[in-house]
Hints:
Elements: H1 2-24, E1 36-44, E2 47-53, E3 58-66, E4 76-80, E5 86-89, E6 96-103, E7 115-121, E8 126-134
Parallel strand pairs: 1-8
Antiparallel strand pairs: 1-2, 1-5, 3-4, 3-6, 6-7
Amino acid sequence: MFRKMNLCFCPFALAMAISIWLEACPSELPAFAGGIRVTTSEVLLEDQNASLAISDALDVGNLQSSIGPGIGTATSFSGFTDLNGLDDHVNATTNAYWTISANFIVSSAPNCPGDQATHPYPIGGGEEDFICLQP
């Protein structure tokens, strides 16, 4: 009788484990709410069509200059990317030039080099993508 219960429990446990795993996998990314969104991902040199999100990458942004009236009041930000490789800064001042950097040392891809970019972000906000190419 004990063995029979184990056999009945195994398919149920397997189904539960698969269900939990599927729920942990994001099916779609959260909508962009404005401000500045930082994304971090890694791409294999052999297959640059597939990318994998990098979580826990440190991202830092500093306002350089205003172009004109914008939305948001923050003139600097810092944070870490989530499991989707995203970090949204919805209160970042838009219609302005920003310098944004990403550091991967404490991330899920510590071998990736850090990077920095300076760009204008329009009134509606924008996205800064940091991509690490892996051999």
